[in-house]
Amino acid sequence: MNVRFSLASVVATALVVAGATTASAQADTTRRPTSQQRVRVTKEAGGEVARRDSAFIRDSIARADSLARLERMRQDSIARADSLARLERMRQDSIARDSVARADSIARARQAALTDTVPTPTTTMSTDAFEVRRGSWYLGLGGGPNIPTGTVEDVYKTGFNVTVPIGWQPQASAFGLRFDLSYGRLNGRDDLGGTQPDDPSIWSGTANATLDLFRFGESRRGALYLIGGGGVYRFTDFYNTDRSDNDPESAFEGNPVTKGGLTGGAGLAFPIGGASLFLESRYTNVFTDGENTRWVPVVIGVKWR
């Protein structure tokens, strides 16, 4: 009986366990659809996260693009600022150049006005006539005929002269100074009905003042001018047979003699390259005994510094 009871207990226990197992299985079977629904819910939640991640990425890209555009705009602004700075420097440089140019133009205009107002001696017969600039020394060489006048013409006819002018012209004045060294001759007439007189020689040194009356030409170096002064004259072989009623003491009887005299006339200078060509004539009067001795030298020459 005891054995039967034990078996019955075992069988009962087995049945209880089997029933519990079956119940548990059913319970699991019952809960499985709920787990599947949770998985689906989980999948739906993952999609929302993915959409949020995509939106975040798009926003990030958009912000990056905006930052890039802002950076490009900043760089463009810097470039424009540099361009404006360069333009401003160019404008300032242009203004400075224009100011300098205007100052130079004003200075040149003032200088030109001063030159037009002040008669700068461009060619006081020999000063500027030989491309002598204001305030500088000049040297010339010329020659031409000596034409006797008065009683001298009764005994002598036209001869010649050689003249060396040495002058100085102030910077801002129409007046100048000139010293002339000259050698001349007169030709004795052969129609006097007697012994023909020798051809006399005349050495002279004169100090003269010059005055420009009018200037013209390149750099205003051409001029119409007056010249006048006085000096000493040395006569050699000079003799006057006096064919008139004049005092025969006006002749020197052929003896060398030195006398004082005056001279004055006018001239015209033409600029030629770096020199000047001049033409002038002066009336010369020497204070000889009796009647004065007079002649007119005509000089054509060139002067230069």
Short structural summary:
The chain is rod-shaped and about 210 Å long. It is an alpha+beta fold and 305 residues long. A hairpin with a 5-residue loop joins strand 4 and strand 5.
As a whole number of angstroms, the C-alpha radius of gyration is 63 Å
The number of distinct structural domains comes to 2
By DSSP, the count of extended strands is 8
Mean pLDDT over all positions: 77
Strand content: 35-45%
Largest sheet: 8 strands, antiparallel, barrel
Q: Any guess at the CATH architecture of the largest domain? A: Beta Barrel
Low-pLDDT stretches are 32-37, 121-135, 241-251
Distance between the termini: 173 Å
Structural class: alpha+beta
Basic shape: rod-shaped
Strand order of the largest sheet: 1-2-3-4-5-6-7-8
Percent of residues in helices comes to: 25-40%
CATH class of the largest domain: Mainly Beta
Quaternary state reads single chain
Tally of alpha and pi helices: 2
The SSE string, one letter per element, is: HEHEEEEEEE
CATH topology of the largest domain: Porin
Written description of the protein model:
The chain has two helices and eight strands; from the N terminus they run αβαβββββββ. It is of the alpha+beta class and 305 residues long. The chain has two domains: 91 residues; 168 residues, Porin, CATH 2.40.160.20. An eight-stranded antiparallel barrel has the order 1-2-3-4-5-6-7-8. β2 and β3 form a beta hairpin. About 10% of the residues have low confidence.
